[in-house]
Amino acid sequence: xxxxxxxxxxxxxxxxxxxGAYSFLPLIExxxxxxxxxxxxxxxxDVLGAIQIFPGAISIKxxxxxxxxxxxxxxxxxxxxxxxxxxxxxxLLVGALYLRFKDMPPLKQAFAMIRLAVFAxxxxxxxxxxxxxxxxxxxxxxxxxxxxxxxxxxxxxxxxIIAGAGILGALGL
Length: 173
What we know:
81% helix
């Protein structure tokens, strides 16, 4: 039963996570923390911090972690298959439709609204992923501002920004 639950939960997440990596986080949190209680809120945030240092999709890392925690390797496989099936099937279907109807104004407007909703959810998760007291300290504001400017306005690879912040933190700066 747990393998089916893992498959189904990550199938739902894959089905409704529109907008990229961080759009998955509110959905994953709702399912694995609130609905199923497979992870606690602190564990969810700890995993978020830990998985950011590894390459790959966030949803795959959460599916792997959650599945493995609950049912070992079969659980990790079931969760990842669920995570993959919905978006793969949808992109095949929607891709064919999009190519045909992409210039229709209602479709353009729908995607514009979806992008705004995803933006808002990403901001909400970003604020949940940090402790506000850290952000409100001068050092926290400075690091966040510099990282934002480097990411938004330069061609510096995000991995270098993350590594640089980690090095500064490790050095106690």
